[in-house]
Design a protein that fits this description.
2 domains; five-stranded antiparallel beta sheet; 1 helix; Jelly Rolls; single chain; mainly beta; Methylamine Dehydrogenase, Chain H
Length: about 500
C-alpha cells in the first residue's frame, strides 16, 4: 500500500469554500509556521496583578533616562502607568473628558434622514458611528505624550507617579490624535477640531505652537475627503492615515518645514490603533483589505484570509481593532471583534518574512512589541490586566491546533482506506491527530481519533473527503512537518 505524504503549504488559506481550500490549512488557533514547520505560539503570564478599570484602548512601553521601564495604558476615562515591576499608578489628567467604552451607532429613530430606508430595518451605514475611545501614546524623550480622542487635549507626564499628566502648554485642543515625529516635532492630528488639519510644535520645543520666523511650528490642512485617524513614524517620513487614504509628511526645513504627499487612495484604516510599523514597513487593516507602505506608494496585501475576516467582523465596533508588531517572528497581529461579539475576540496575523497568514481566537485589546520589555505586552479584554506574551506554554483553557480543508486521498470517486499514520513530529507524542471523513459534501462527518503522533501509529478510517486536525496535548515547544498516511483505495460507495 502506498504512503501518501501530506505536504501542506504553510499558513492558513480561508478564502471561498471548503473545497477551494483543498490541500491547505483552513482553521487554527495559537499556531504559526516557521521554515515550513508548524509550531505553537508561545503562551503568556501576568505582568501586573493590578487591573485597569475598563478595556485598555492604547498601550505603550518605553525607558526613561535612568533605564527604568514604563508602560502607559489608557481606557475610556483613565490613564495609567505601570512601573517595570508592574506597580500601577493612576495619572489621569485633572478634568479629562471621559469617552465611551463601546462605539455608539444610532441606526434607529433619528439616526438618519427622514424617509430613507424601510420601516423597522436598521440603517447600518446611515450615520457615522461614534468610535470607542482610544489613546494615542508616545514618548517625548523620557516623558510620556498622551491624547484621548474623546478629550482632544495633548498631555505630558514627567515621570512623577504622584502627579497626573498635565496639558501640554499652548498645544491645540479638540485633536483626534497626536504623535512625536523622528525629527522631534509633536504632531497634533485633526488639530483644533478640524478633522483634516495637521499642526506641529517647534522642533525640540513642544510648548511652542504659534508659527513665527524664529521657529518651525506650523500647520496644514490635508486635501482629503476623509478624516485623520492616526500617524506613525516610518523610515525617514511620517505616515498619516485617514479613513479613506494615506499621506506622507517629509521634513524639508525652511519656511515650509514639512512637505506633504498623498501616497494612497481608497486605503484608509478602520481605527486609530489598527496600524503597526516594523522594519518591513507600515501595515494596517482597511474596511475590506489589508495594506502596507514601505516607501513609494501604498499597496494592498494579497491576503489568504480576507474573505474569512471581513465577512465575519463587527463593523459597528471595528473602532476597537488594534495591531501590534511581533518582531521576533516577523509578524503583524490584528485583534478585532467578530460579528458575534461587541468586544475583541479574534486575531488575524501576517508573517511578512514568510508571506503566510494565521487566524485564531484571543481576547486582547491593546499592546506593544518587545523592546523596552523582553517580550510583547498585551492587555486582556475581560480582566483588563497586562500580560507578558511569547513566554512559556500557558494558554489558560485554549488549545493550539490547526485543521485542514477537506482533501482527497483516492482517485476519481474511489474511497480511501487509511490504515497507518507515520507522523513527522519532533517530540513524538506531544501532539495528537484527529481525522474527519465524509463520503460526499453533504454527508454526516465522522470523526476518528485522537491518535497520538508517535511513530508509527495504527489508524483505520475510510472516506472520499478527509480533514486532519493536529493539536498539542503537552505544554511544550513541539513541531509538525510532513506527515504520511498508508492508503489503499476501496470501491465505490
Amino acid at each position: 500500500m502506498p504512503l501518501v505524504p501530506l505536504d501542506i503549504p504553510s499558513g492558513i488559506y480561508r478564502n471561498g469554500t471548503d473545497l477551494q481550500s483543498t490541500g491547505r490549512w483552513r482553521d487554527s488557533n495559537l499556531v504559526r509556521w516557521m521554515d515550513n514547520t508548524m509550531q505553537p505560539v508561545k503562551g503568556w503570564r501576568e505582568r501586573s496583578s493590578s487591573a485597569a478599570n475598563a478595556p485598555v484602548r492604547g498601550a505603550y512601553g518605553w525607558r526613561d533616562n535612568s533605564q527604568d521601564i514604563w508602560t502607559a495604558a489608557g481606557t475610556y476615562n483613565k490613564l495609567y502607568v505601570y512601573a517595570g515591576a508592574g506597580i500601577q499608578y493612576d495619572i489621569t489628567p485633572a478634568g479629562l473628558t471621559a469617552g465611551i467604552a463601546d462605539a455608539d451607532v444610532n441606526t434607529g429613530y433619528g439616526g438618519s434622514f427622514f424617509g430613507t430606508g424601510y420601516y423597522g430595518i436598521a440603517r447600518i451605514n446611515a450615520t457615522v458611528p461614534t468610535p470607542a475611545t482610544s489613546w494615542a501614546l508616545d514618548n517625548w524623550g523620557e516623558y510620556l505624550i498622551a491624547c484621548s480622542d474623546a478629550d482632544g487635549k495633548i498631555y505630558e507626564w514627567q515621570l512623577n507617579t504622584g502627579t497626573p499628566a498635565a496639558v501640554l502648554s499652548n498645544a491645540p485642543t479638540g485633536n483626534r490624535s497626536a504623535m512625536v515625529t523622528s525629527e522631534r516635532f509633536v504632531f497634533a492630528l485633526g488639530a483644533g477640531g478640524n478633522p483634516r488639519k495637521v499642526a506641529w510644535s517647534d522642533r525640540e520645543d513642544n510648548n511652542t505652537w504659534t508659527p513665527a520666523t524664529t521657529n518651525e511650528a506650523g500647520d496644514i490642512e490635508l486635501q482629503t475627503a476623509g478624516y485623520i485617524q492616526c500617524g506613525r513614524r516610518v523610515q525617514g517620513q511620517t505616515l498619516i492615515l485617514t479613513d479613506v487614504d494615506a499621506h506622507i509628511a517629509t521634513y524639508v526645513g525652511g519656511q515650509f518645514v514639512y512637505g506633504f504627499e498623498r501616497v494612497g487612495t481608497s486605503c484608509g484604516c478602520v481605527s486609530k490603533q489598527s496600524v503597526a510599523v516594523s522594519d518591513a514597513g507600515a501595515f494596517w487593516m482597511g474596511s475590506k483589505a489589508f495594506y502596507t507602505y514601505a516607501g513609494g506608494r501604498v499597496t494592498e496585501l494579497n491576503s489568504d484570509v480576507s474573505d474569512y475576516v471581513f465577512s465575519d467582523i463587527n463593523s459597528a465596533q471595528i473602532s476597537k481593532a488594534f495591531a501590534f508588531v511581533n518582531g521576533r517572528y516577523g509578524e503583524i497581529w490584528w485583534f478585532y471583534p467578530s460579528s458575534a461579539s461587541n468586544e475583541i475576540d479574534r486575531y488575524v496575523a501576517y508573517n511578512y518574512t514568510e508571506n503566510t497568514w494565521m487566524i485564531g481566537q484571543l481576547d486582547r485589546t491593546a499592546g506593544f512589541d518587545a523592546g523596552s520589555f523582553k517580550n510583547p505586552t498585551l492587555f486582556g479584554a475581560t480582566d483588563y490586566k497586562a500580560y507578558e506574551h511569547e513566554i512559556g506554554f500557558n494558554y489558560d483553557s485554549l488549545v493550539p491546533f490547526a485543521e485542514t480543508a477537506p482533501f482527497s486521498l483516492g482517485s476519481g470517486d474511489q474511497v480511501a482506506v487509511v490504515t497507518e499514520m507515520i507522523p513527522d513530529e519532533r517530540t513524538q507524542g506531544e501532539v495528537e491527530a484527529v481525522f474527519k471523513t465524509r463520503f460526499h459534501p453533504n454527508d454526516v462527518e465522522r470523526e476518528y481519533g485522537a491518535y497520538s503522533m508517535s511513530n508509527p501509529t495504527s489508524v483505520r478510517f475510510t472516506g472520499r473527503q478527509i480533514r486532519m486536525r493536529v493539536q498539542g496535548t503537552v505544554l511544550s515547544d513541539w513541531r509538525v512537518g510532513i506527515n504520511r498516511l498508508e492508503v489503499k483505495s476501496g470501491g465505490r460507495r
